[in-house]
């Protein structure tokens, strides 16, 4: 069962929320769970399972009763149903259709849904969406219209590199703007300029808006180490703790919380455990379990603090010389050239 709503300008977080309200009114109810592609109007970033929502969409989702399920990045198997419907509308409704105005287009879209998209049998199921929807509609949650707030600020998260991502480009901020996870700035467009503000309203800096787009083409799986099995990674990570059973308990808590991102969390944890001091590792494990910090990045940050508070943050091994019979070679310095030689060459 499909619903379509067109507008002239690019969709924002606010208009996406309004589109939800229009769709719920059209269907006469609200589903229990909504499945999404990771669109920038709803998702700011993904941290191996932790979905960071835009401020406007997060406020709206909290005011509604539906659960959110976001497809993984670059995963066509889970995103196919979402993207196929878009292609279906483009090729069967919009293609070669004369355009007069937006209101007429939206009216034509509703008429097309009634006589074609929702009426004719589906090519795969061989059933009419409209007839099947009459069976499913009683299971929808009750819909009561709400007004979408149009006064929210356009907030963007700041990356560790003191940059924000805006329309496929990165814009820099002064050093020190990033003060930790969750740092945000307000973004305003003023003609051809991008204005960046602190949450308190004070101006940080301005940039000309670039019409170009940076291209970074990759696949999520290409950045993941799949050479060893997940069970082997779990064993390796648990062996990094003195109390292996307690380490396994912590890892299984992460696995149950992020079942689709367990490997990503284990990679972060194994990297942190690689050269860390054993005492600091065990203290970090106890702290994370006590405070229910079941996240590999949080484990890494706590471990960093533990290492900074000890005099021996890493396991230092004795230096192994290539030639044990000649200890004096370790004390030798390389010969340095005189700058006068280079000046003589340049002058010639």
Strand content is: 5-15%
CATH topology of the largest domain: Nucleotidyltransferase, domain 5
Q: Quickly give the CATH architecture of the largest domain.
A: 2-Layer Sandwich
Mean pLDDT: 84
How would you sum up this structure, described in words?
A hairpin with a 2-residue loop joins strand 6 (163-166) and strand 7 (169-172). This protein has helices at 13-27, 55-63, 76-94, 102-117, 129-136, 230-239, 244-257, 262-273, 278-290, 296-308, 339-347; strands spanning 33-36, 43-47, 50-53, 67-70, 155-157, 163-166, 169-172, 184-190, 193-197, 203-208. The strands form four sheets. It has a four-stranded antiparallel β-sheet, with no helix packed on it. It has a two-stranded parallel ribbon with strand order 1-4. It is 40% helix and 13% strand. The chain is of the alpha+beta class and 348 residues long. It contains eleven helices and ten strands. It has three domains: 13-139, Nucleotidyltransferase, domain 5 (2-Layer Sandwich), CATH 3.30.420; 155-208, no CATH class; 224-308, no CATH class.
Jot down its keywords.
Nucleotidyltransferase, domain 5; 348 residues; 3 domains; alpha+beta; 40% helix; four-stranded antiparallel beta sheet; two-stranded parallel ribbon; extended; 13% strand; 11 helices
Q: Which SSEs are present, and which pair or pack?
A:
Blueprint: H1 13-27, E1 33-36, E2 43-47, E3 50-53, H2 55-63, E4 67-70, H3 76-94, H4 102-117, H5 129-136, E5 155-157, E6 163-166, E7 169-172, E8 184-190, E9 193-197, E10 203-208, H6 230-239, H7 244-257, H8 262-273, H9 278-290, H10 296-308, H11 339-347
Parallel strand pairs: 1-4
Antiparallel strand pairs: 2-3, 5-8, 6-7, 8-9, 9-10
Helix pairs in contact: 1-2, 6-7, 6-8, 8-10, 9-10
């Amino acid at each position: 069962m499909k619903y379509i709503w067109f507008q002239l300008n690019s969709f924002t977080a606010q208009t996406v929320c309004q589109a939800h309200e229009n769709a719920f009114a059209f269907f006469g109810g609200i589903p229990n769970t909504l499945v999404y592609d990771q669109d920038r109007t709803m998702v700011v970033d993904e941290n191996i399972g932790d979905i960071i929502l835009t401020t406007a969409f997060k406020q709206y989702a909290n005011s509604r009763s539906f659960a959110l399920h976001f497809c993984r990045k670059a995963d066509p198997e889970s995103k196919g149903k979402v993207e196929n419907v878009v292609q279906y509308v483009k090729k069967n409704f919009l293609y070669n259709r004369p355009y007069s105005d937006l209101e007429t287009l939206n009216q034509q879209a509703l008429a097309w849904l009634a006589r074609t998209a929702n009426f004719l049998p589906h090519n795969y199921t061989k059933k009419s969406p409209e007839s099947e929807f009459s069976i499913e509609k009683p299971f929808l949650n009750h819909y009561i219209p709400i007004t979408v707030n149009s006064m929210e600020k356009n907030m963007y998260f700041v990356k560790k590199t003191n940059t924000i991502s805006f329309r496929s480009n990165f814009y820099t901020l002064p050093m020190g703007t990033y003060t930790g996870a969750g740092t945000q700035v307000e973004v305003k467009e003023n003609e051809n300029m991008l204005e960046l503000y602190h949450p308190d309203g004070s101006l940080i800096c301005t940039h000309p808006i670039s019409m170009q787009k940076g291209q970074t083409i990759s696949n999520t799986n290409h950045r993941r180490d799949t050479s060893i099995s997940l069970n082997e990674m779990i064993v390796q990570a648990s062996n990094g703790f003195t109390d292996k059973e307690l380490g396994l308990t912590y890892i299984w808590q992460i696995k149950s919380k992020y079942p689709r991102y367990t490997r990503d969390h284990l990679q972060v944890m194994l990297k942190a455990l690689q050269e860390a001091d054993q005492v600091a590792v065990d203290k970090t494990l106890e702290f994370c379990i006590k405070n229910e910090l079941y996240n590999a990045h949080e484990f890494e940050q706590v471990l960093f603090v533990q290492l900074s508070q000890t005099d021996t943050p890493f396991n230092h091994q004795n230096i192994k010389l290539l030639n044990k019979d000649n200890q004096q070679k370790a004390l030798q310095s390389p010969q340095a050239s005189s700058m006068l030689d280079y000046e003589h060459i340049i002058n010639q």
